[in-house]
TrEMBL record:
GO biological process entries: cell division; chromosome segregation; DNA integration; DNA recombination
Single annotated GO MF: DNA binding
Protein name: Integrase
UniProt-listed SUPFAM superfamilies: DNA breaking-rejoining enzymes
Keyword Phosphoprotein: no
Organism: Cupriavidus necator (Alcaligenes eutrophus)
Protein origin, superkingdom: Bacteria
Main location: cytoplasm
DNA-binding listed as a keyword: yes
Lineage of source species: Bacteria, Pseudomonadati, Pseudomonadota, Betaproteobacteria, Burkholderiales
Amino acid sequence: MALLPLEPRASLVASLPAPLERLHLPPALSGAAGTNRAPPVGARIAAGDDLAAVTVWLARYADNTATLATYRREVERLILWAVLQLGKPLSSLTHEDLLAYERFLADPKPAARWVLAGNKKLARGHADWRPFAGPLSPGSVRQAMVILNALFAWLTEAGYLAGNPLALARRRRAPTQARITRYLSHDLWETVKDTVAAMPTETARERLHAARCRWVLTVLYLGGLRASELTATTMGAFFCRRDIQGIERWWLEVTGKGNKSRLVPATDELIAELARYRRAHELPPTPQFGETRPLVLPLIGSEGRQSGEKPLSRGALHLVLKEVFAMAAARLRARGPEWEAQADVLASASAHWLRHTAGSHMTDRQVDLRFVRDNFGHSSLSTTSGYLHSEEDARHEATQERHRIGWGSEK
């Protein structure tokens, strides 16, 4: 999504907020003469007012739709609050102003001006659009202030502002890393696998659906992929190379958050499941180099090959998994009322639970945490790691040896 141009902008009407792309500020509120503006000599951006400056900052995130939308929302809220509530431009805000804004986020008042009426989300051009759906939670307030701190720090570094008013904020102790709770125990995971293994296969469509459910669970679990990574990856992302001892090892190249690529070990078990899945679709067991078929293939009928084998959408993937988890929950409930709590856990599971489940099970089996980190793309590899193939081979060997799905005998 490209950043929308900031002009022409509609005038503010009756002191009601307007979306950033329609906002027109009078000279006194434009920031052209803000009290925190840096001298123009040495400025590294050409922006002459606050809206132009934040547009330059937001443009840095134009390649990431979700990040751009989140950052624009927080900047938009602050600018609207500053001009409508304080009568100040962004570039005149002080540390005290931002403390007041932090309190405002927790309870935006007057609500008629700031908060959307009802639960229906309105288009940004609608007359009843508002920048808030309601008060922000403490966590959302913290996130908003972190984003704004990044904005002010960048505008200061760019020579647009003389200083960052949020740099004076009290330094908070880094929160303790939350313990992952949204994952399936080994017993619940076995129930999910048993449920898929028992899916009906009487018709061609049932067989392909059962094969798809098994493959989706396999690649999410063994590869630790995010849902977005699964839907965006093609069959051609699998490739084979020899290690320094001449052993052939398969890998899956995935592009994850921040458009960063990583190599996921494709264990012998994963490659066998890939071949099984492809044979169900009457394809050669091994994908060809550069093959553009999606990692999850369409079913016959309305999803058939006439559709050009479009990749599964995240919404469709969500429905596939929710169906599996619902069937697994029903399987537990059939055992008796004492299984109700466990069934509720399964019924609430989602695609990301499988990623957490995979990570938790790997650590349970003493897979080196560095290998788990790199498999999941939790942090970037150093520049020199591209040359350390022996470390990658050790990661592959450890993953293959200790991280298995174990479907059991063929049906």
